Amino acid sequence: MHIPRLLINFKAYMESSGDRAVEISKSAERIWREMGVLIGVSPNIVDLRLISSSVEIPVFAQHVDPIPAGAYTGHVPPILVKEAGARGSLLNHSEKQIPLRHIAESINMMRDLNLISIVCSPTPSESAAVAALLPDAIAVEPPELIGSGIPVSKAKPEVILNSLRSVKAINSAIPLLCGAGISSGDDVKAALELGSYGVLVASAVTKSPDPQRKIRELAEPIASFTRA
Amino acid sequence: MHIPRLLINFKAYMESSGDRAVEISKSAERIWREMGVLIGVSPNIVDLRLISSSVEIPVFAQHVDPIPAGAYTGHVPPILVKEAGARGSLLNHSEKQIPLRHIAESINMMRDLNLISIVCSPTPSESAAVAALLPDAIAVEPPELIGSGIPVSKAKPEVILNSLRSVKAINSAIPLLCGAGISSGDDVKAALELGSYGVLVASAVTKSPDPQRKIRELAEPIASFTRA
Amino acid sequence: MHIPRLLINFKAYMESSGDRAVEISKSAERIWREMGVLIGVSPNIVDLRLISSSVEIPVFAQHVDPIPAGAYTGHVPPILVKEAGARGSLLNHSEKQIPLRHIAESINMMRDLNLISIVCSPTPSESAAVAALLPDAIAVEPPELIGSGIPVSKAKPEVILNSLRSVKAINSAIPLLCGAGISSGDDVKAALELGSYGVLVASAVTKSPDPQRKIRELAEPIASFTRA
Amino acid sequence: MHIPRLLINFKAYMESSGDRAVEISKSAERIWREMGVLIGVSPNIVDLRLISSSVEIPVFAQHVDPIPAGAYTGHVPPILVKEAGARGSLLNHSEKQIPLRHIAESINMMRDLNLISIVCSPTPSESAAVAALLPDAIAVEPPELIGSGIPVSKAKPEVILNSLRSVKAINSAIPLLCGAGISSGDDVKAALELGSYGVLVASAVTKSPDPQRKIRELAEPIASFTRA
């Protein structure tokens, strides 16, 4: 199972929907081929199938509901997300918080379907809690820095260090991504040096005048770091 | 604005997702061409764009969130649904109940985008409440009959009659669909004779061994009735 | 059934909890005896029984869940609220929005228990929607003015006028209270002159250095107006 | 800080509200004095203050919201629960599931107020997740056995054993209660022998024709066990 080192969340932005979602995803694919850095994209659910059929890099839903296929108007079961070509899903993003039991059930359902679960968490202690549920990866993001342009890796390095420590104490095999305010290659480098497996970004790429250049900038420190 | 007389809700069924969603939608389109009965389909959100680009009949989301495009991971704003080709959305289905204010805000946002809002309601008095919010149509469905195979139009005709009366008292221009347990042409006929503008169906079509034949059966009384 | 002309919402303020809740409620009771203006209080649920047993004026819960008595940990059925001495409940406050169906079900359950339902609404069209559900009273409060100190009755008189018009069109017997930013006797007078049956207030009283004097100030225009 | 060995959840039952809530609580207090077994009661929030002022045994809310005192109509901040005399709160009961972040924030707010947090969980892995958030105690209850009369301690001993193991791995100081279907002294004995610190019960006591006798029956094995 391949967890992306750079995961781009398209949220519900116009700038990263429809044709633009395809374009950004193809840019990410190009950088992956160019540099060998595994990049994932998480488009809005309306674009999920379109993106899955347009690129070979892994595509993630932004949320799934812990339900089987069935009579659930307005809900999205993991199996339909898989059928639409996704390789996994984000869960519990600070913009889409869900009950503890839904996190646990969704992880289990996704595991049975061979879908990658990446669970978001705002703090070290919640990262530890999530780790106990055995997701495939955890993405720690202090909500107050999301979209702020203030990089977690520089402004709150202790959030990353403490999350790493507390997650490792529970299960040393779960990779930790970090996010919130990451907008330059330098921010990514700082995150990796602290011990992050990778980073989660959104507006830095989706609102960039030149997303491909921005993705390359963010991927470069990962390429250097993982080569080293 | 064209409100379908027959609206097929695909829910989150496997039987009406992916390729099968396309197939059922194409069947509906064929019946529309054959009989002139306007049929709408409401696929799962993962299939929305696929279906919109496959057929000319109107396609409806099963739910939208009352938000603009933006930083809303795991949410679906009306504008993205429109961009994906939908002509409107269901709202407040009994399987996806939302706060009163969300109904009002979603209707307003959809009106501004020229998207058709069809708001579900379980009872006559809630149909009246919804009518006051001026949606494009209302679909009354007693939850206890949904998926039961017991047709609302025969088992609870008073729900339809009282909904019609109470909606008309508020705004006589809002068409009323009815649903729950509708599974034969006869059930549709009964609904129309009571005064329904149309019907909302799900498993009767999606789980049929021959969806096209079933759609034809359900559309026939509408064709007769609207010709009469 | 007696709907208060002045309803004081204690929210979850420290300033209006425990002993202070009793004191404010007794002040309200005194003004009621002094002026004959019916005043209601809506304490936090932890204080509901304490207040109900301390004063004779009507006490309202701030919210109830649409459930019977039973295995509902962390929920509050209307019947327990009644048993604790409440005379009714607020519902759907902008700080506690609930699904349309919960509003309808709660109103029905409260009616069966002889409890007064006062349903909050942010706009004229939602006031009309609520009116169709036949609550005992409606309280319209534009959320952006709640706690602002800018009185709805002066800053947005059209919200009151349009709510009155749209509620009357549905059921002319439902009294309309208005709230948000009401903090002086003058604001109350303006509300009554526009046609409000009464007003809903919170911080103006609960955070006042002299709640009794403030209640008297707010009740005076009601006394004059209803005498007139 | 004293965590009860026997915690009685009154839910929203008529049989354990108002005067009956006082009576059951006084019975629990008597057994505590008689046997020295610490018993806690968790009345419905409408009865919280009444019970707190009637008995000396610890009283727990059934839920709190992760908010400070303030403009939160229809919500209950921990500080008001404390002011009403509670010694702590249950959280995340299977009948009142809350987002992971709310659990974390509520625990932290309660710790700052010296309130005891007892967090419910349905499975061993969710118990571990909760343990990482450092509550004062965890209560594991398989939801399918709640109210069933089939005791978790006999029907699903592995849930208790695995929860103990996984909680200990994270923090060996957090006591584990277990619940669901516990209705006899024998069920309690089985729970203690498996390693439970105590038990959580509801209908076995609240719906008993003789609650005091039932509480004594449930407390006896605890008295024997803790003496041993």
TrEMBL record, chains A, B, C, D:
Keyword Isomerase belongs to the record: yes
Xref: SUPFAM superfamilies: Triosephosphate isomerase (TIM)
Location within or outside the cell: Cytoplasm
Predominant localisation class: cytoplasm
Reactions this protein catalyses: D-glyceraldehyde 3-phosphate = dihydroxyacetone phosphate
Biological pathway: Carbohydrate degradation; glycolysis; D-glyceraldehyde 3-phosphate from glycerone phosphate: step 1/1; Carbohydrate biosynthesis; gluconeogenesis
Gene3D superfamilies cross-referenced by the UniProt entry: Aldolase class I
Alphabetical list of HAMAP family matching this protein: TIM_A (MF_00147_A)
Biological function: Involved in the gluconeogenesis. Catalyzes stereospecifically the conversion of dihydroxyacetone phosphate (DHAP) to D-glyceraldehyde-3-phosphate (G3P).
Protein name: Triosephosphate isomerase
Organism this protein belongs to: Korarchaeum cryptofilum (strain OPF8)
